[in-house]
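Batch manifest, entry 17 of 40.
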Amino acid sequence: MKLKYFSFLFLALCLFFSCQKKETSKTTINQNLLVDLNKLSNEIIQFQKLVDRNASPNEIVEQFKKSRLFYKKVEWAIEYFIPETARFMNGPALDEMELEENRSFEPHGFQVIEDMIYPEYKIEDKENVIRELNIFQSNIKQLKTTFEVITISDDYVLDALEQNIFRVIALGITGFDSPILQSSIPEAGESLLSISKPLEIINSDNKSLVDLKKLIAAAQQYCKENNNFNAFDRAFFITEYLNPISKKIKTFQKELNIKNVKKTSPLKPEIETLFDKNAFDVNAFVLSKDYNYTTDKAKLGEKLFYDTNLSKNNDRSCASCHHPEKAFTDGLKTNVSLTGSNLARNTPTLTYASLQNAQFWDMRQLDLEKQSVDVIQNKDEMHGSMDAIHAKILLNNEYISLFKKAFPKTSKPEAWQIQNAIASYVRSLNAFDSRFDEYMRGNKNALNNQEIEGMNLFMGKAKCATCHFTPLFNGTVPPSYSKSEHEVIGTPQDVSGKKLSVDQGRYLYNKMPQLVGAFKTPTVRNAAITAPYMHNGVFKTLEEVVDFYNKGGGQGLGYEVENQTLPFDELKMTKMEEKALVAFMKTLTDKKYQ
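Output type: structure tokens
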């Protein structure tokens, strides 16, 4: 009996220590990342060797592609936890600018190297390529040092992985970070594969994980079998793979009762896909919690928006230039000043304006509150006075009642609340109910074949989505949405197309040569009814806009635009493709304007 007891005890102790050993030897998220970073470092070393021994251009390009694939395995963590370093590893090959101090920093990383080695690698660029690779290795070392010491909890891992899916949708499959080689499709597949391991580390026994891994494997296989950048069916890939994967990750999270990360973010933490109707939180773009959106503020703001008493002569309101039936534009090339002269710029739509980090074509104001004051006090537009408006409101009982409801913590209306109320009304103008939105939420009949082709062109061959990011279709960069981009495209001065626009755009406020002719990237949502287009209203139709981009913008037309950020090569779209592209843009119209 004692022998059996001791045998059982010995077996139990063996199992206990075996389990303990297994538990302590379990790979952590950090360890897994360090292993992948070492692999990436080895690929960069191999890259350096090839360049150093003057290997053939083809060998160098192939090693570059291979190195990028290894980067995609760790991109989900680098972009999320250390975005400042990510910018100089795989950011755009454009100067990084600190506008407050009028300073710029030269870019580094894969996209800079890509420009050096493709379409033709020249031996005189050897030293520059080696320099970039050395910088890249230094960044890898920095990443390894960081991941060795930081703690990564499960909730942050899931948030990072979900953002990675959104990154693949909005940036990965559009060619945003592979603009020349266009190796985005196989890279998207590799990026998706990086999801499985962290989830296994969190809980390998989860019942949803098996199905999720199968779905990821199928998505990667689809990328392998359909790796032609221009022909890739992004509409199918998003709806059949990426959206379902995003939902599965959320299911995994719920089944393990892992809470959402508490943070201020333009994307609401509870969403299942990037295309959920209420995916975006306008409060992420406000100055402080005091400025947060409420329906009562929006109701008050609507009344103020249509009140002509905001102007000096009591004859012009916000709605005088932003007509609701035209998606809050005016249909004019440029609006007319109070004295009857033409203003310099086209009136932009206010729909989805709240989902940007800067306002006006030249981005001179950072929020909607300052935007409204700028317009009201502008001598050519409304020539009003905030002090005078405030005084009028204090004498108006109806307004006082609305202000009390909108701002219950204050005893009487305050000047800042006027701005906040108008801004809140503008924040209510995001419907997300176009036919495109319906399609992305599962209604396959919402778009016809031509429109789906147009969507694939928009996110692929036509390169529209590398500046107008899905699903906002403006220049607010996903998936963090922490900055809004400007572009230099070389817009013509008039319809003759013989002269470049003289408007210097953002350069007027930030005297940096890169900003001459730079303008905010506006949303394409509701573009079908917000003609004419561009900062100066030079194009009357979407067809004219598409033709301009198809020719390569200003440089393509022969203008001297040395700082043009738009690719200046012809897109070589056929007339049928141009029609399909326009057809797709028309699907972005909200229901109330259809």
